[in-house]
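Note to self: keep these together.
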Amino acid sequence: MSGYLAIAIDLGGTQIRAGIVDETGRIHRRETVRTQSDSNAEIVIAQIVSLIAQVTAGVSPTMIAGIGMSSPGPIDTSTGETLGLPSIKGFEDYALRTVLSERLGRPVALENDGISAVIGEWQLGAGKDFANIVYVTVSTGVGGGVIVDNRVMRGRRGMAGHVGHMSIVPHGERCGCGNLGCWEAYASATNFTKRAKAAGAGDDAAKVFEAARAGNRLALKLVAEQAEYLAQGFVSLMHLFSPDVLIMGGGMSQQFDLLQDPIMEHVSTYAMKPFQGCRIVPAALGTDSGLIGASRLVFMG
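Structure:
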């Protein structure tokens, strides 16, 4: 390895990933561990510190330009505090940036996971040729980030982009945030799996998509339902931000080829015609959007 490198951390409700990333976005080393999301903050912090020790073993400190971290929200990026993470216990009013900086002996650049991911795709992925981008991650939950006129939209306390908590069904299913009818409560991979299990299609989302590819009627019905839930939120975001491109990331983006046609069918029905020119594409960086975006926090200064 040569040149300056960033330590990148991507904290998620299911996994924590750490990597050593260079300025081109190449990941030289990576380690992943399942998040102990039902434990407490100290255990999760210990997981992060352990992963960083693994990826930096044998790397000269002079090669490290800094540490960037992507975290689910809501977080106040002006203070570095998490304000309660629905997918991970123990992070209510927790000084995440300060604690990690003290444990690691270096400053930590902290950003909401959706914003980190949109930065990664904007600079090195599917959004690099565009000035107006909406990124939506569909995984354990649903999150997002927005670029408007080549500027990162952060909003008050750095909390902009919590797109999963738009209400799409009045008095609907209860979301992990406590509200009723959130988009996340319908469109997340977690809730897709719950619907599949309730319908008798099993509790493995990947296998449901595999069955749909083989023509299984129940699986096809579940995939069509998922595409409609996704399209409902996508259209609202298109109307709000008028993006050049809407990028779908997260684990479910790996099934984009099966979801694309029904999503676009619903978009053609729900979206006003002037907005239908927006492209909807999968994340070019795949599930590494957030990790690479976290590294860009270091190189962007």
